[in-house]
Amino acid sequence: MLPHIDYRELPRALQHMLERDRIDACATLPRRSFLKLAGAGGLALGAFPHLAMAQASAAGQAASALKPTQQPLAFVQIAPNGEVTVTINRLEFGQGVQTALPMILAEELDADWRLVRSRHGSSDAAYVDPLFGIHLTGGSNSVKNSFTQYRELGARARAMLLGAAAARWNVDVATLRTQAGQVLAPDGRKLGYGELAEAAMALPVPEKVTLKDPKDFRLIGRPTNRLDARAKSSGRQDFGIDSRLPGQLTAVVAHPPVFGARLASVDDSAARAVPGVKAVLRVPLDRGAEGVAVVADGYWPAKLGRDALKLQWDTSSVEKVDSERQLAQYRELAGQPGPRHFDADMAPLATAPRQLQAEFVFPYLAHAAMEPLNCTVQLSEGRAELWTGSQCPGLDAAAAARVLGLKPEQVAVHVQMAGGGFGRRFSSSSDFVIEACAIAKATRAAGLNAPVRTLWSREDDIKGGYYRPMHLHRARIGFDEHGQVLAWDHVIVGQSITTGSVFEGFQVKNGIDATATEGMREPYALPMRLTVHHPKLNVPVLWWRSVGSTHTAFVMETLLDEIARATQQDPVAYRMRLFGDKHPRHRAALQLAVDQSGYGKKPLPAGRAWGVAVHESFSSVVAYVVQASVKEGRPVLHRVTAGVHCNLAVNPRTIEAQVQGAAVMGLSMCLPGAAITLKDGVVEQGNFGDFSVARITDMPEIAVHIVPSADAPTGMGEPGLPPLAPAFANAIARLTGKPVRDLPFKLA
Amino acid sequence: MNTLNVNGRQHTVDADPGTPILWALRDTLGLTGTKFGCGAALCGACTVHLDGQAIRSCITPISAAGGKKITTIEAVTDGSDRVGAAVHAAWVQHDVAQCGYCQSGQVMSATAFLKSLPRGKQPSAAQIDTAMAGNICRCGTYARIRAAVADAAKSLA
């Protein structure tokens, strides 16, 4: 997501939000944590940079010139017993950032890893992305953008602890060193960080610190188990859905059957009669729609109440998209002139000795994260608190303020552990958050003074939109007998994700959304003309794990493979030739996958074929070498070998997990049932029975190998996804002799 | 009023007898380790044990639990259950969880499966897949789930 944001280009709106958040810092105190920690003593300022500054001022010290993102006091708490709690400036929703960022900070802090804990931040200004200046979990940016930030935070905190020890012992700080949560003096004296924390807290925060030489890393680069592994496998990890505020009510919403539709009539008499139902409320929804919220003392009565509603919808003024008609429209559009992303001389198409024409169709896809969307809202006079698993708590806070008629500084979003997300928790319109706020507001207006948790059913999630857009790709390629491409005329048709959102200004250029074209052409130096059409349709679309590369990687890697096959070339050697000397990371990732898989050396069992693909997304490169077969007309993926280049591997254990998981999500795209379709404006799927995702029985054997590197790390949340489907398709094409051009795969 | 035996304790639940066990556990008894994923017995996130059998609590009404024992993830992983403890330990050792949301259900299915085997019997790879096929993990932790179930079985031998 948002791979192209240049922080220097941040539009005025986002800058404004950032300024607001700075002012807002005071208003977003997690009060309960403060009270608990204030009683506990120790270096326990946590998310209270303003408090640190106030105390520093009271002690006669000048307030630090450091930005909130550089203040260790906002990120590290050290309890008297030595426990170090690191606050993460991202949403943990599976990618392992809740372990990776503490590892980075603990490395420079010289913490005892056994005593390191982690917790989520909030919409507080300290927790913005240090490069983008907004709160954001996306684009595989967490470790990439916060690597230096968290190292410096750890180094600053360590310097303060050293300073406190030097003062306690009255020795030169230069004679002291640190090791595993202790400060050590040359004469053998030791002080634990927990004993020093309170004194360290009162010291000024150093602006300049020296970071470790990477050869001295003890934690970074070591395969490390997740900090949340134990809680998450014993039911003891709370997620947003597990919110249990005193007196909390639960709301379930009847959403319109067609996006944006309004209510013609409401008969809620039966719903109101359901025991436990407290209120039935007509509420405004996202995209100008209306809905009916049933508020009850639990999910089940609220759901029964919703089932009992008799609603008539007015769909006369909204477009009713139909997938079959839409495909015909896209085909027609593909033949028309449009804005060009790349251009090249297409004259060789007429004379090229070899020709290839192809059309690809990619359906809408739901994110289908396992935790259904939810958001809990507590309103009091002039204040709102939200608890939700948000990828963009700052934007969500601003959207909530608009709905609630509050000032932004009166809203706090507390980020909750999330059961997956894959982009859905970074809705460009904050759709599920503003829905929850509208319901909380209406509930309060109805005289019920209680926190309200709005909870979506699985059907709400599958039918609720914000899908990976449907895309049509069309290519006409001329090449020679050596596989040299002479001209490549390419068209993409699909809805723009960012048009109409706050990100349009720097993602859409010359009418082309960069999130639709990312992954096209690069790294191959091809004479390509790329025309892009962005039709506007009444289906909400959004980034979905790896965004544009979910379709561009498939198109590029299967077409190049087809050219290699047509010219009797080995697909690995062909790609290596195209990479030349300019793409050493691609070469290294592919070579590692080739070497580890036994490709070209190991004989395969009868009926199996090799498939290869390599793709860079979000600054990391993943190559797959796979083995597949066709069994009773169905494609089967047997074995996957991954070669990964993400520069320095902060936590190889998590990187392996991310590649395994992204491969499964990529596999899901290929399997029957992986499509959202619409009939007369209504989404046809509703649950895991008809929108199917990969199960354990679909799981191939998988081995993940990482190219060693000492360069600054790049992210791994998404890059494992794009090359899986094309590698699988290339193997199938080798078996059947026919290219795979549709997702999910159609072998007819 | 309905009486439910949950994790060895009797609870009185004031809810419609048709209320799924899932919501009695989560909203009434505050046992939120059991998760809501689909509401239609399709994903396995809500798996609990009813008299030792793995069931989908999202579609099983509390009226079906009369006189029976409900066991949830909280009790299976509190150290008191030999098989549950082995599964939990294997899950931690293999660092299975990513987002973790489905893992309560995965652990409950794995535990019921291993309890169903004759003591000391090691499951085949195909048996593990069949036993776990009803539990969706959207993060795709299946490779580590396979390894963790196999290791838990070994540790119980």
Automatic annotation (TrEMBL), chain A:
<feature type="domain" description="Aldehyde oxidase/xanthine dehydrogenase a/b hammerhead">
    <location>
        <begin position="234"/>
        <end position="317"/>
    </location>
</feature>
<dbReference type="InterPro" id="IPR008274">
    <property type="entry name" value="AldOxase/xan_DH_MoCoBD1"/>
</dbReference>
<dbReference type="Pfam" id="PF20256">
    <property type="entry name" value="MoCoBD_2"/>
</dbReference>
<dbReference type="InterPro" id="IPR052516">
    <property type="entry name" value="N-heterocyclic_Hydroxylase"/>
</dbReference>
<dbReference type="GO" id="GO:0016491">
    <property type="term" value="F:oxidoreductase activity"/>
</dbReference>
<dbReference type="InterPro" id="IPR006311">
    <property type="entry name" value="TAT_signal"/>
</dbReference>
<dbReference type="InterPro" id="IPR012368">
    <property type="entry name" value="OxRdtase_Mopterin-bd_su_IorB"/>
</dbReference>
<dbReference type="InterPro" id="IPR000674">
    <property type="entry name" value="Ald_Oxase/Xan_DH_a/b"/>
</dbReference>
<protein>
    <submittedName>
        <fullName>Xanthine dehydrogenase family protein molybdopterin-binding subunit</fullName>
    </submittedName>
</protein>
<dbReference type="InterPro" id="IPR037165">
    <property type="entry name" value="AldOxase/xan_DH_Mopterin-bd_sf"/>
</dbReference>
<dbReference type="Pfam" id="PF02738">
    <property type="entry name" value="MoCoBD_1"/>
</dbReference>
<dbReference type="InterPro" id="IPR046867">
    <property type="entry name" value="AldOxase/xan_DH_MoCoBD2"/>
</dbReference>
Automatic annotation (TrEMBL), chain B:
<dbReference type="InterPro" id="IPR012675">
    <property type="entry name" value="Beta-grasp_dom_sf"/>
</dbReference>
<keyword id="KW-0560">Oxidoreductase</keyword>
<dbReference type="InterPro" id="IPR036884">
    <property type="entry name" value="2Fe-2S-bd_dom_sf"/>
</dbReference>
<dbReference type="InterPro" id="IPR006058">
    <property type="entry name" value="2Fe2S_fd_BS"/>
</dbReference>
<dbReference type="GO" id="GO:0046872">
    <property type="term" value="F:metal ion binding"/>
</dbReference>
<dbReference type="Pfam" id="PF00111">
    <property type="entry name" value="Fer2"/>
</dbReference>
<keyword id="KW-0479">Metal-binding</keyword>
<protein>
    <submittedName>
        <fullName>(2Fe-2S)-binding protein</fullName>
    </submittedName>
</protein>
<keyword id="KW-0001">2Fe-2S</keyword>
<keyword id="KW-0408">Iron</keyword>
<feature type="domain" description="2Fe-2S ferredoxin-type">
    <location>
        <begin position="1"/>
        <end position="76"/>
    </location>
</feature>
<dbReference type="GO" id="GO:0051537">
    <property type="term" value="F:2 iron, 2 sulfur cluster binding"/>
</dbReference>
<dbReference type="InterPro" id="IPR051452">
    <property type="entry name" value="Diverse_Oxidoreductases"/>
</dbReference>
<dbReference type="Pfam" id="PF01799">
    <property type="entry name" value="Fer2_2"/>
</dbReference>
<dbReference type="InterPro" id="IPR036010">
    <property type="entry name" value="2Fe-2S_ferredoxin-like_sf"/>
</dbReference>
<dbReference type="InterPro" id="IPR002888">
    <property type="entry name" value="2Fe-2S-bd"/>
</dbReference>
<dbReference type="InterPro" id="IPR001041">
    <property type="entry name" value="2Fe-2S_ferredoxin-type"/>
</dbReference>
<keyword id="KW-0411">Iron-sulfur</keyword>
<dbReference type="GO" id="GO:0016491">
    <property type="term" value="F:oxidoreductase activity"/>
</dbReference>
